[in-house]
Design the sequence.
């Protein structure tokens, strides 16, 4: 009984909000500029919770039902985490990168086999001399693909390296 009450107390402390049309427009402007993802590519309700994380819910859930649930339970972890709003751009989640893989047309980094293995182990990727020339004037968030054209994650390119955001629970062990 105490565990259930504690769980309900935690739920009441959490919060999220449904993105309005202005927020959606700004989000999709960034997603389109960075990755080529348009609003027409995404079907569903978007919410934002703590730490500027955007989540996607089924279009079958109405805003009224969601607001009622939020008012009574203060839900935060509902739906698929698709991106995080950072001060210097929008970072896609690993799951969203795979969900939208067919519509992502921009900010794609092609990793070689060695880089892919290092990436999946949680290390940052150091660019080769050839890659430095190819990505010379680029920076910001990228979707990484391996030599088999599979998405292996999302990272941030700066100073000739890509910072890894793969959660520890998803990293390969040595």
Sequence:
């Amino acid at each position: 009984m105490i565990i259930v009450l504690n769980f309900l107390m935690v739920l009441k402390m959490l919060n999220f909000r449904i993105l309005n049309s202005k927020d959606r427009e700004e989000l999709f402007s960034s997603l389109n500029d960075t990755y080529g993802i348009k609003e027409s590519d995404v079907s569903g309700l978007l919410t934002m919770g703590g730490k500027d994380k955007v989540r996607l819910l089924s279009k079958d859930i109405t805003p009224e039902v969601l607001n009622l649930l939020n008012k009574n339970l203060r839900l935060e972890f509902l739906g698929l985490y698709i991106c995080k709003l950072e001060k210097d751009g929008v970072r896609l989640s690993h799951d969203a990168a795979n969900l939208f893989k067919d519509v992502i047309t921009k900010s794609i980094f092609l990793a070689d086999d060695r880089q892919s293995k290092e990436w999946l182990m949680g290390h940052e990727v150091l660019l080769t001399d050839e890659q430095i020339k190819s990505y010379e004037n680029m920076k910001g968030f990228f979707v990484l693909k391996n030599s088999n054209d599979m998405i292996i994650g999302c990272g941030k390119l700066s100073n000739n390296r890509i910072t890894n955001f793969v959660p520890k629970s998803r990293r390969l062990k040595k």
The beta strands are 17-18, 45-48, 53-57, 80-86, 89-92, 108-110, 125-126, 140-145, 151-158, 161-164. Confidence is low (pLDDT under 50) at residues 1-14. The two ends are 42 Å apart (CA to CA).
